Amino acid sequence: MEKEFVSLLNRHPGILYKVCSLYCKDREDRNDLFQEIVLQLWKAFPTFKNESAVTTWMYRIALNTAISNFRKKSGKPQPVSFSDLDFQIPDLKEDIAEEEISLLYASIEQLSPVEKAVISLYLDDRSYDEMASILGISKSNVGVKLNRIKTKLETLIKSITR
Predict the structure, then answer these.
(1) Residue among 161, 56, 70 nearest 114 (CA)
(2) What is the pTM of this model?
(3) In sequence order, which residues have a C-beta less than 8 Å from that of residue 148 and are 6 or more positions away?
(4) What is the pLDDT of residue 67?
(5) Crossing angle (nearest 10°) for helices 139-161 and 128-135
(6) Mean pLDDT, rounded, for 25-38
């Protein structure tokens, strides 16, 4: 069972790294969260019944762990000031897409933990069905949340670019 678990982690490390990066800015916090997610996956591994894709199961546990960890550390999300963001002045030759991605991630940092989870799954090209399964909400609720998050992100990006 231990070898199966380690093999599973080695096949899908990106899921864990992505979730840790979304919820923790500090390297030590990311490492702590990574370990906590691995522990929770290990505890849940014997009960995994292959009723969903293994990646869906991993996302669900990782996101639930990250969100509960986030809530333990702070009662509510704190807005990030521009001075705290690691902005770099782009070279004139840099691709505009990279700047847009930076704006997107700066805006995502300002979302609530649940909103971050939803948009992360969306950006990872997960289907509405899979997102609903991971998040424990209905498929139609996924659509509603995504539309609200997209609108919120547009507003945040506009406020940053002004």
Answers:
(1) 70
(2) 0.61
(3) none
(4) 85
(5) 90
(6) 90
